[in-house]
Write a structure and sequence with these properties.
434 Repressor (Amino-terminal Domain), 2 domains, elongated, mainly alpha, 0% strand
Length: 106
């Protein structure tokens, strides 16, 4: 099984490692061969079929839901290392930049 396909599905190496309950450096080491080791193939296939492990894309993330999940604009700003005004601008525009979404899920 190609690692690139799996990482694309989960969104990042860190997300894949979290789903498998592995250290991200373990999954990072798989990049050398470009393949998921046979030992993990069945587990990865099973996780890929579960909807809770679908890749999160910007279309699936609302600014208001992130604010609600983290409790406040200030909490989101601190988490993403931006100013609260930046979070307010995201809310006004209705979207969070994809690199910031990756920080939330990755």
């Amino acid at each position: 099984m190609r690692l690139l396909k799996v990482v694309d599905h989960f969104g990042s190496i860190k997300a894949l490692a979290n789903a498998l309950e592995l250290n991200p450096s373990t999954v990072q080491a798989w990049k050398k061969s470009g393949l998921v080791p046979e030992k993990w193939t069945a587990a990865v296939n099973e996780l890929m079929q579960q909807s809770k492990f679908q890749k999160v894309t910007p279309e699936h993330v609302s600014v208001d839901s992130i604010i609600a999940q983290h409790g406040s604009v200030k909490a989101v700003a601190q988490l993403l290392k931006v100013t609260p005004n930046t979070v307010y601008r995201w809310r006004d525009s209705g979207r969070i930049p994809s690199e910031s979404i990756e920080k939330l899920v990755g």
